[in-house]
Amino acid sequence: MSDVAVHEADHGTHGHTTTTGLSNNKIAMWLFLGSECLLFGGLISTYMLYRGRVSEGPRPGNVFDIPFTSVSSFILLMSSLTMVLAVSAAQNRDDRGTTLWLTITALLGATFVGGQVYEFTAMYNEGLGFTTSLFGSSFYTLTGFHGVHVTVGIIMLMSVVGIIKRSTIPGDKAEVVELVGLYWHFVDVIWIIIFTLVYLIPA
Amino acid sequence: MAIIERPATAGGVEIAPPATPSRAQGGFKRPVATTGWKSWLFTVDHKKLGIMYGVMAMFFFIVGGIEAVLIRLQLAAPEGKVLSASVYNQMFTMHATTMVFLFVMPMAAAFANYFIPLQIGARDVAFPRMNAFGFWCVLGGGIFINLSWFLGGAADGGWFMYAPNSGPIFSPSHGVDFWTLGLQITGIASLTGAINLIVTVLNMRAPGMSLMKMPVFTWLQLVVQFLLLFAVPVITVALFLLSFQRNFGATFFDVSAGADPLLWQHLFWIFGHPEVYILILPSFGIISEVLPVFSKKPLFGYPFVVFSGAAIGFVGWGVWAHHMFASGLGPVSVAVFSISTMAIAIPTGVKIVNWTLTLWGGKLRFTAAMHFAVGLIVLFTIGGLSGVTHSVAPSDTQQTDTYYIVAHFHYVLFGGAVFGLFSGFYYWWPKMFGKTLNEKLGKANFWLMVIGMNMTFGPMHILGLQGQPRRMYQWTEARAGEGFFNLAFWNQIASIGSLILVVGVLLFLINVVKTARSKELAPLDPWDSRTLEWMTSSPPKEHNFDVIPTVHHLDEFFHRKYQQDPVTHEYKQIATAEEILADQEAHADKHIHMPSPSYWPIVLAATLPIITTGVIYSIPVAIVGGIFLVLAMFGWALEPSTAPETDFDPPAAGESTKELAPLV
Fold first, then answer.
1. Is A6 inside any structural domain?
2. Which residues between 131 and 190 in chain B have a beta carbon less than 8 angstroms from any beta carbon of chain A?
3. What is d(CA B544, CA A57) in angstroms, rounded to the nearest whole number?
4. Is residue A183 part of a domain?
């Protein structure tokens, strides 16, 4: 998303193009997130269809450790708070604050992913493999896709930290932080839906 | 190239030699070639990419056409021996896949890429490198899918790849894997392309061009991009699930493991039905440009055409299950989808009325482009009407999986989408290449295609209603029936028709070669056109417009050429295209900053087939591909899209360095 727009406004007298007033990058990120809604929509539908289909292996109620996942969900949601603080620091041109909050956000995200890895391992040891049952396949697919999204988010956060340190990308750094923030919040919101539907509502 | 300099004195169109970016950013120094194959390989110019999309799509059109002819040869005689049963399955699967994903969609993308920026008065798209990336993805994905022909057999489950045909028991070759993963790659291109073009249209229109002053082609392409944006992720999910089933042992569509095969059907058609409009709306847009020009009238009811296009886009999301009436959905679902399917005929009918009334009372000029546009109206209406018969569920239950369906969608897709694209070829060829395609050959091309397509697909209505199932591998004389409904007779007519179609398409290719060799240049405004893309040289300059036009009217170019007499209300010509262009050149912008070519789009796109090959044959290869993918993304991110001026060396040796003209 780091493409810089073709600025035809570069040539003064013919000034303004007819635009939305939002930057190209920001609209692009919103559109991408709109598209992602349908991706997770498809995955969630698949899970909801298959969550009760257990021919062998554990059932949903038996493998979930709700207190543990609640804590890791709380950590992920807190990372949205630190993300907001990072965006706010970036808009105040506070490079140190931005770097700090971005790093904390990434660490919280990494804690969540770590928790997911632990959770997957525990479930695997209880006999729920990827191919054990339709429930297993659709559960690991849905939460796995979400985990990959968080991981990509962490890489993006760390890349922005690197960019701020090196100042290699021209343009508005605050906006780059904001764009990563949009993505990060989106991934969090998706987790709220997944956590509710998968863990809290019994199959 | 990147920065175009002009002498400080106004009026000049002289362009200084391009400067050379000196600094390596994101790994490579920037490519600098402005001629030769390198200038195409690393280009980010929307016009070059448009032509590249077009050439690629034409190649796949020929591939898909050969597949179609082989299918018709197989069915030309009783107990056909041209293809084995297994190859026949691969042939119809790949024919559909090629025509849908590798011909019509990329050809529509070719027109979108080339003409959207020109029609809205922009100098390029919002994300030029992403545009190039999209092209290389489609090419890579297309080649990847077709590689399966040589690696154990192509996909053979039909283009909608229902379970259980898609499973390893019924399709043991790697064909379906190549198909699944290749479509993931082309899906990435659709997604990036959609985002890119939506942002371009929303953010980069020329001053004064409100949304309701936008040309209809751009409008309908905008609707298409929204459909792509939301439809592609759904097929992405379906393809992932199928991949996980085939490659990693999951059982998402395996009935014996308790799965629901209808899940695939729902996911596929939630994508698949919007996809139908993704295929047809660009052609609707093209003929909505062509008809007014050759009727010398504005498009009748412009807002109706625009809003009915948007309505088709919305309602298109609520009709998918009409592809599944025979699957036992239950009466309520069937009734709902039946009614919504009937409803979608209304905005489509609105368009047909508008086109017809555009022609009504116009000064018609029957050029080749106009022939194809009128052909679309007629043939699409036939296909649309047979479509309405499918919306009636009891009748559809009879027609499901017969040749009647084949007849229907070839009337809308060949008679509709393909005719629209051909109309676009004849209309825009002089704009893209500066030479007009031969009109006489064009009309012969049209008539052969009309006769060929009606002979090929018309009899299929009869075949289908008589019960010939689609995808039937052979028919036998003993069961062909007698009299008017003799299946042998109509199958033979259809096969002869397909050969006439081949001759028609060959005439087009001959026309292209002939035109390329001819030295005769097209006039600047050969058709007396109405929209902004004609307000520049042919072919357009790299920066499209010497000065970005300010728009006051719908059909801005027409209103610059003609003015209405206040008394008689007749339009009088006040300027020629040449005068308008000369005026633009006289007031040319001094300093135009164009995006710079880049290695990254092709490098990034090349990592994707490596990953997908690895998924099929060896996971470590996929991991290596993934590492390259991440590295390429970083390289991309670290390279600014437009090279900053400090990055430029003096021009080539022997020439003095020119001062860049100051920013006005």
1. no
2. none
3. 63
4. yes
> Is B652 a residue whose pLDDT tops 60?
no
| Mutant choice from B199, B241, B545 vs A, greatest count of A C-beta within 10 A | B199
Residue B36 has a pLDDT of 80
Return the percentage of chain B with pLDDT > 90, whole number.
77
- Quick check: B46 and B117 in contact, CB under 8 A? yes
> Between the CA of residue B208 and those of B120, B200, B238, B365, what are the distances in Å?
10, 15, 43, 31
Q: How would you write B70-135 as a 3-class SS string?
A: HHHHHCCCCCCCCCCHHHHHHHHHHHHHHHHHHHHHHHHHHHHHHHHHHHCCCCCCCCHHHHHHHH
| Chain A residue with Cα closest to B129 | A3
- Digit-coded pLDDT (tens) for B116-129: 999 999 999 999 99
Write down the mean pLDDT value for chain B.
89
Nearest CA-CA distance, residue A76 and chain B, Å: 24
Residue B564 has pLDDT above 70, yes or no: yes
Q: Give which of B471, B442, B438 is closest to B95, Cα–Cα.
A: B471
Residue type, B528: D
Which of 584-643 (B) contact A at CB < 8 A? 589-595, 630, 634, 636-638, 640-642
Of A2, A6, A170, the CB nearest to B124: A6
Q: Which of B191, B203, B244 sits opposite A19 (nearest CB)?
A: B203
Beta bridge partners of B544: B541
The torsion of the CA quartet B36, B37, B39, B43, rounded to 10 degrees, works out to 160
B592 beta partners: B4
**For the whole prediction, is pTM greater than 0.90?**
yes
Based on the structure, what is the number of domains in chain A? 1
- Return d(Cα B153, Cα B176) in angstroms, integer: 9
Phi-psi region of B420 (alpha: psi -120 to 50; beta: other; left: phi over 0): alpha
| B172 cis-preceded (ω within 30 degrees of 0) | no
Q: What is the pLDDT of residues B167-191, one digit of tens each?
A: 888 999 999 999 999 999 999 999 9
Cβ atoms of residues B72 and B498 within 8 Å: yes
Q: Is B79 exposed, middle or buried (0-12, 13-18, 19+ CB in 10 A)?
A: exposed
Predicted local confidence at residue A14, as pLDDT: 42
pLDDT recorded at residue A20: 85
DSSP letter assigned to residue B31: P
Question: In CATH terms, is domain B45-594 a member of 2.30.30.240?
Answer: no
B127–A159 C-beta distance less than 8 A: no
CA gap B150, B516 in Å, rounded: 34
B549 → chain A, closest CA residue: A14
Please classify residue B124 by burial: count the beta carbons closer than 10 Å to its beta carbon, then call 0-12 exposed, 13-18 middle and 19+ buried. buried
Angle of helix B262-295 relative to helix B105-119, nearest 10 degrees? Answer: 50
- Confidence class for position B651, pLDDT limits 50, 70, 90: very low
DSSP label at B19?
Answer: P
A151 touching chain B per CB within 8 A: no
DSSP one-letter string for B387-418 = HHHHHSHHHHHHHTTBHHHHHHHHHHIIIIII
Residues 12-51 (B) with a CB less than 8 A from some CB of A: 25
Which DSSP symbol is given to B322?
G
List, as ranges, residues 62-121 from A with C-beta within 8 Å of B.
none
Q: Is B205 on the interface with A (CB under 8 A)?
A: yes
Q: Which is higher by pLDDT, A164 or A14? A: A164
Which whole number is the average pLDDT over A42-59? 90
Instruction: State the CATH number of the domain containing residue A156.
Output: 1.20.120.80
Tell whether A22 is within 8 A of chain B (Cβ). yes
Give the DSSP H/E element, type plus range, for residue A188: helix A173-194
Is residue A8 in a domain? no
